Amino acid sequence: MFRISTLLIAGLAAIAAPKLQAECIYPDEIIIPDGAASTYEEMRDSQTFVKEYMAEMEAYINCLEQEYHSQVYETIDENKLPDVNNPINEDEQLHTQQRHSAIDAMESVAAKFNEQVRTFKKVNP
Questions:
Q1: End-to-end alpha-carbon separation of the chain, Å?
Q2: In this structure, are residues 32 and 112 in contact, taking their beta carbons and an 8 Å threshold?
């Protein structure tokens, strides 16, 4: 009896596992200090935070890629062929928008940080 219930639980877990995948977590925004009013230590710490943020965003993008590809393979496994008349479906559009949004956010943070570093260097030659 114990063996049958264990197999039943394992089977249900295997069926539910794809639905229980962790969602990709978008990193929190970071605050970049004003280069004109910051100390060297604040700017150095800010650089560390920017690097951590970029690593978290890379992890987020990788998670999006894995999630998307697992959905694509799941669709293929279910023998659902893509619509040849509309090759870009809603999932693909959402995936592309999320990815582009993350990349835009990374570029924006990098630009803001670099601008404040230049300002800091002007004020503190």
A1: 78
A2: yes
Cα angle: 102, vertex 19, 67; to 5 degrees: 30
Domain residue ranges of the chain, discontinuous segments joined by +: 24-123
Q: Do 64 and 44 touch, CB atoms closer than 8 A?
A: no
Chain length of the chain: 125
pTM exceeding the 0.70 threshold for the entire prediction: no
Contact 108, 59 (CB under 8 A): no
Query: Cβ neighbours of residue 66 under 8 Å, at least 6 residues apart?
Result: none
pLDDT, tens only, 17-65: 444 445 888 999 999 999 999 999 999 999 999 999 999 999 999 998 8
Cβ distance 98 to 26 under 8 Å? no
Amino acid 33: pLDDT = 94
75: buried, middle or exposed (CB in 10 Å: 19+, 13-18, 0-12)? middle
Q: What is the pLDDT of residue 32?
A: 94
